[in-house]
Design a protein that fits this description.
The protein has helices spanning 83-92, 99-105, 113-125, 143-151, 164-177, 190-203, 224-235, 242-252, 254-257, 263-270, 306-316, 322-328; strands spanning 38-44, 47-59, 65-69, 75-76, 209-212, 218-223, 275-279, 283-287, 293-298, 331-334, 337-344. With 346 residues, it is α+β, with helices and mostly antiparallel strands. The longest helix has 14 residues, at 164-177.
């Protein structure tokens, strides 16, 4: 008998291909791997109990960087510091707003009665139902106004939300241009594409990312240098341009941009010619009448650090007076009395 032949080695059978699952997009980040410097310290009873880090840039009148702390060329979401650019986009799209109405279009308003009243009048003027607003229902942004509002029995409302002026202006121009109202917050909507271009023109750099802001509107990421450059360009724009019209309206009617108890209002009211706008997550941008500008972001988003950091930056720029002291004062309480402060650390 012939010798038996060894069996051929077994071969692995290929598994049926698995159904491909799309990988989630890798998250991007505005946070630099480099630890940013401390911009503010929390001091309680003489003891430093906390620190707020962040990045800050100061531009000279010629646009050159005069001071840079942290990562000032890394893109960030400016949040509501983008609103002047959004308001300019509404003007470029064809809406003829002036005065308080234009200031309110660039506002993060406090929800005070005069804010809510003007939003409702604007809606009526353009034949718009408040239900068309796609900002979420909310309470007044200002703490004192919120207590009064709730005590009256009122409920969260879209008109009360701090971005309702901006949304009303966006709806109004869409109604006038015959653009879709239901999709006015889509990044590909004609209005939002105009705003995108305004942001890039003002910042002098491409938008690095597009997200969704707290109010639902598209949000364009730019660097702190770009944000400061944008404010400088608005403050010194040609008279009659969309950018200058927004800046002039904000400076003439700062209480409509913020509220009666807000730092942006105080600064624009008491330092004539200044353009100032804060944003959520502790972002701030300011342009001074001499052409210089600043922008900063506190990395952890702590709004309690905004005032002290802004006041210190203004002091470095030579701005002085009671308004700077008022903006910078952030006391800490213990047992109902003042026992410490949040203070700038640069």
């Amino acid at each position: 008998m012939p010798a038996s032949q060894p069996s051929p080695p077994a071969t692995a059978q290929p598994s049926p291909p698995a159904t491909a699952q799309p990988s989630p997009p890798a998250p991007t980040s505005a946070l630099s791997p480099v630890v940013p410097p401390v911009l503010a310290e929390v001091v309680r009873s003489g003891f430093v109990e906390g620190r707020h880090r962040g990045s800050l840039v100061v531009l000279g009148a010629d646009g050159a960087v005069e001071l840079a702390l942290g990562e000032v060329t890394t893109p960030v979401f400016p949040r509501s510091s983008n609103k002047p650019m959004q308001a300019a986009g509404v003007l470029r799209a064809g809406l003829d707003l002036t005065g308080e109405r234009l200031a309110l279009a660039a506002a993060s308003h406090s929800g005070e009665p005069f804010h809510r009243g003007l939003v409702r009048r604007m809606l009526d003027e353009y034949g718009l139902d408040p239900d068309l607003l796609q900002c979420p229902p909310d309470l007044p942004l200002d703490a004192e106004e919120r207590e009064t509002y709730l005590a009256s029995g009122a409920a969260p409302d879209r008109v009360t939300m701090n971005c309702s002026g901006k949304h009303t202006a966006m709806l109004a121009v869409c109604a006038e241009r015959g653009w879709p109202l239901e999709s006015y917050l889509d990044p590909e909507h004609p209005l939002q594409r105009i705003i995108h271009r305004v942001v890039e023109d003002a910042a002098g750099e491409p938008v690095a990312a597009v997200g969704t802001d707290g109010c639902g509107a598209p949000l364009m990421a730019i660097s702190l240098v770009g944000l400061a450059r944008a404010f400088c360009s608005f403050a010194g724009a040609e008279p009659g341009s969309a950018e200058r019209r927004v800046a002039d309206a904000m400076r003439a009617h700062p209480e409509y941009v913020a509220g009666t108890r807000r730092a942006d209002t105080w600064l624009m009211r008491e330092v004539p010619g200044t353009l100032s706008k804060m944003g959520a997550e502790a972002v701030q941008a300011v342009a001074l009448p001499d052409g210089r500008a600043l922008a900063f972001k506190v990395e952890d988003g702590a709004t309690r650090a905004l005032g002290p950091v802004l006041a210190r930056a203004l002091t470095l720029l030579g701005v002085a007076g009671p308004v700077v002291d008022r903006i910078g004062r952030t006391p800490l309480l213990g047992g109902g009395r003042e026992v410490g402060v949040v203070r700038a650390a640069f």
